[in-house]
Write a structure and sequence with these properties.
425 residues, mainly beta, Rossmann fold, Neuraminidase, 2 domains, 30 strands, globular
């Protein structure tokens, strides 16, 4: 089994970095911070109606991000009606259950608006470390929770959290396959297409989604905004697949099939000024993915006999092979941090699992094993998480894990057949 990356929790002394602990991901001895997330207190009927959705979203965010060990509420010793200020909290009760941090929230409503107040405490010091107050429409209780979770994430890491980002995916429906865009946890999903076969969605920076669709009989590239009708983006050759937008949103890379081969092309984001980057007659070049600086592309090619991951400049220069282990490597996703490319590989048992390859030294690390089929990884916008599809629940569902393969969890979605996720701000 390939060696596994790990993460290290470093608590910086209080006189450094504005008196705040900082969670850094590096090293090899990761211990998630034990955090107790108390049941939210509510002040009125409107808040009580929204508390279940708010609480579920907040708890999932903390559990899935990989930075915390969310303690089981069944073991809590503190009074459930305990207040949210330091003077009203019996910190020894939280120490006794192993909590190092404590999250307290209080909800109230005013008409159609929901207000949430979050307080984060250091249990050992008995001190409030963070206070955040936000409001949102009552119907957006989950998104309000994501906003507060991001505040806690940034408090500890100095990084923007992933909880207010969007994902796209396809789902099998009675009329074919349709594209959806949802919150990062798969909730609040909006159906973008309606019938036929629509696959391989790519979120467009600034809004909208592109996807390959058979709506014009040939599988060409379309785009759609909100509930608008899809419009043609690129119609060339016999098939256009694998759209990937550059980090600045100005260019799109695709694979276009022409005859017996498929080549990588780059065009303006509106589909104009299309330029071929690869030229390998009788071979397939597919699944482009951009480096975070927009200067390079990773892609799949079978020019050496079987699918492997390659890299090249954004102008097609300097094409070279990146993976040499495995005989069937596909679906690359370049980390926004620049160091890793995640991909799907078929192992020695003909099972599909997920790996990363270091762009600088070509070191391969295995992320999944012995958990059914795992495919189609895509990094979160901050590079700390990976979204992927897995059949471990029977049907193909969406799962998330940390970039090193730890803390694998299913998204809280109803069962279905989900494929080809994408993730963007």
């Amino acid at each position: 089994m390939f060696s596994r990356l790990a993460a290290l929790l470093v608590l910086v002394p209080s006189f450094v970095l504005a008196q705040r602990p900082v969670i850094e991901i590096s090293g090899a001895n990761f211990r998630p911070m034990p955090v107790a997330v108390a049941v939210p207190l509510t002040q009125d009927e409107g808040a009580r109606a929204a508390v279940a959705e708010f609480d579920a979203a907040l708890s999932f965010d903390f559990a899935a991000c990989g930075l915390f060990q969310v303690l089981d509420r069944k073991g809590f010793l503190a009074d459930a009606k305990e207040g949210v200020t330091a003077s009203s909290i019996q910190f020894n009760r939280w120490t006794d259950v192993g909590a190092e941090s404590l999250v307290k929230t209080q909800l109230s409503s005013d008409g159609a608006s929901l207000r949430a107040d979050l307080r984060l405490f250091s249990v050992a010091a008995g001190r409030e470390e963070l206070k955040v107050s936000e409001a949102a429409p009552l119907k957006d209780a989950r998104r309000l929770a994501h906003k507060l979770a991001n505040a806690v994430y940034k408090h500890y890491t100095r990084e923007t959290g992933p909880f207010e980002t969007r994902i796209a995916f396809t789902r099998k429906t009675p009329s074919g396959r349709d594209v959806y865009v949802a919150d990062w946890d798969g909730k609040n999903a909006q159906r973008i297409t309606n019938g036929d076969v629509n696959v391989l969605p790519a979120l467009i920076p600034g809004g909208g989604v592109a996807f390959t669709s058979y709506r014009s009989r040939k599988p060409f590239l379309f785009s759609a905004q909100g509930g608008g009708e899809p419009v043609s983006l690129i119609a060339k050759g016999s098939m256009v697949t694998g759209a990937a937008f550059s980090p600045d949103g100005k260019r799109v890379a695709v694979s276009i099939s022409e005859g017996e081969n498929a080549e990588i092309f780059v065009a303006n984001a509106d589909g104009s000024n299309i330029t071929k980057l690869t030229d390998t007659k009788f071979f397939l070049n597919t699944s482009p993915t951009w480096s975070p600086d927009g200067k390079r592309l990773a892609f799949v090619s079978n020019r050496a006999g079987n699918p492997q991951i390659y890299v090249m400049g954004a102008d097609g220069a300097g094409q070279k092979r990146l993976t040499f282990q495995g005989n069937y490597n596909t679906t690359p996703s370049w980390s926004p941090r620049g160091d890793l490319v995640a991909f799907t590989a078929r192992d020695e048992r003909n099972a599909f699992d997920l790996f990363t390859v270091n762009v600088d030294n070509a070191k391969v690390t295995r992320l999944t094993q012995d958990a059914a089929g795992n495919e189609e990884p895509v990094f979160s916008p901050n590079g700390r998480l990976i979204l992927f599809t897995s059949s471990r629940g029977g049907s193909r569902g969406l799962h998330v894990m940390t970039f090193d393969g730890n803390n694998q969890m299913a998204l809280p979605m109803e069962k279905g057949d989900f494929t080809t996720p994408d993730w963007a701000n």
